[in-house]
From TrEMBL:
UniProt xrefs under InterPro entries: A/G_AdeGlyc_MutY, DNA_glycosylase, Endonuclease3_FeS-loop_motif, HhH-GPD_domain, HhH_base_excis_C, MIG/MutY, NUDIX_hydrolase-like_dom_sf
Organism: Deinococcus xianganensis
Name of encoding gene: mutY
Hydrolase recorded as keyword: yes
GO biological process: base-excision repair; mismatch repair
Record's keyword terms, sorted: DNA damage, DNA repair, Glycosidase, Hydrolase, Iron, Iron-sulfur, Metal-binding
Superkingdom, natural source: Bacteria
Entry similarity comment: Belongs to the Nth/MutY family.
Reactions listed under catalytic activity: Hydrolyzes free adenine bases from 7,8-dihydro-8-oxoguanine:adenine mismatched double-stranded DNA, leaving an apurinic site
UniProt name for this protein: Adenine DNA glycosylase
Record EC number: 3.2.2.31
GO molecular function terms listed in the Swiss-Prot or TrEMBL record: 4 iron, 4 sulfur cluster binding; 8-oxo-7,8-dihydroguanine DNA N-glycosylase activity; adenine/guanine mispair binding; metal ion binding; oxidized purine DNA binding; purine-specific mismatch base pair DNA N-glycosylase activity
UniProt keyword Nucleus present: no
Pfam family membership, one: HhH-GPD
UniProt domain HhH-GPD: residue ranges: 47-190
Length: 345
């Protein structure tokens, strides 16, 4: 196997030639290399922080149609921004985009990595991506894909964040930093995949120590998984799936969204679910009705399970169509709609 450091120009040329031929054609990859439109690039990078490319495509188009310019985003009410982000999850991203748009509308787009990093919702990965893609700055991105590619290239079973950043900085092609970053992203997403790497198609195969050892998928060694936290709550539908009592959520995850009134409970305590339903209805001045069923939503570290009940009384219902709702709320409304449909068919 050729020594990686001596061969750096060939290795870079091989990956970039592969990217020029096979790189993914994605809507945010328009414009001259190193001079991407910063608005479109920024929206895409924030979206892709926690959303996979295949799902992100639809959300990206919808968001850009709603807010074609940074000024349009800055001028919009937060409720409209959350509505355009609806279904995408991790709503702090939408709130931060909105706040940052107001800064950019005043000061203009950042002109260097540090300026990007100062904006709400922009961390080192996003700042490196944006400064390389739209400012041609030599900044290497470092995420899970990059970690896997570099761990395999060097047959490093336990790559620390500092090690990955150092290797990524050393490999980055200073002549084409944005293309280099996206080439590594694409290699990790399409060829150097977690379980079944396609080494036969890999432009870096000649330099890959993990491939030479015969066990590329063994790198990096699996991390101990954080336990998934289970959260249980009761939720009530007062009204119909089209006109219902909604409350505005607070907190980092769903803050600003609207949803069915809900009350968490501890399933380990006997009678806690019934008590939560009574407490929730008492707070709303409502009367509990029939159970409608259960809905669940799984995220990376959390699984939320709701027991949904009909209820009567309480505050006046409002039109649900104009409000931004979480996916769990949509599931609860669909459940109620399915119940209503089955009663009349
Ligand atoms: N993931 C994060 N940024 C990306 C980009 N620019 N292209 C494809 N996948 C990405």
């Amino acid at each position: 196997m050729p020594a990686l450091s001596a061969d750096l120009p060939d290795l870079r040329a091989a990956l970039l030639a592969w990217f020029d031929r096979q790189g993914r054609d994605l809507p945010w990859r328009q414009g001259p290399e190193g001079q991407r439109d910063p608005y479109r690039a920024w929206v895409a990078e924030v979206l892709l922080q926690q959303t996979q490319v295949a799902r992100g495509l639809g959300y990206y188009q919808r968001f850009l149609t709603a807010f074609p310019t940074v000024q349009a985003l800055a001028d919009a009410p937060l409720a409209d921004v959350l509505k355009a982000w609806e279904g995408c999850g991790y709503y702090a991203r939408a709130r931060n985009l909105h706040r940052a748009a107001q800064v950019i509308a005043q000061q203009g787009f950042p002109e260097a990595y540090g300026g990007w990093l100062d904006l709400p919702g922009v961390g080192p990965y996003t700042a490196a991506a944006l400064s390389s893609l739209s400012l041609n700055e030599t900044r290497a991105v470092n995420d899970g894909n990059v970690r896997r590619v570099l761990a395999r290239l060097h047959a490093e079973p336990q790559p620390t964040p500092r090690w990955v950043q150092a290797q990524a900085d050393a490999l980055l092609d200073p002549a084409r930093p944005g293309a280099w970053n996206e080439a590594v992203m694409d290699l990790g997403a399409t060829v150097c995949t977690p379980r079944r790497p396609q080494c036969g198609d890999c432009p870096l195969a000649a330099w890959c120590a993990a491939r030479a050892g015969g066990q590329p998928a063994a790198y990096p060694a699996p991390k101990a998984r954080a336990a998934v936290q289970e959260v249980r709550a009761v939720a009530v539908l007062i009204g119909t799936p089209q006109r219902a009592v909604l409350e505005q959520r607070e907190g980092a995850l769903l803050g600003g969204l609207w949803g069915l009134p809900a009350q968490p409970y501890d399933p380990a305590r006997p009678g806690a679910q019934a008590q939560a339903l009574r407490d929730l209805c008492a707070r709303l001045h409502a009367t509990p009705g029939d159970p409608l069923g259960e809905v669940t939503h799984a995220m990376t570290h959390r699984r939320v399970i709701w027991q949904v009940y009909a209820a009567t009384g309480g505050p006046p219902p409002a039109d649900v169509r104009g409000a931004a709702l979480s996916r769990l709320d949509h599931k609860a409304l669909s459940l109620a709609q399915a119940r209503a449909d089955s009663l009349f068919t």
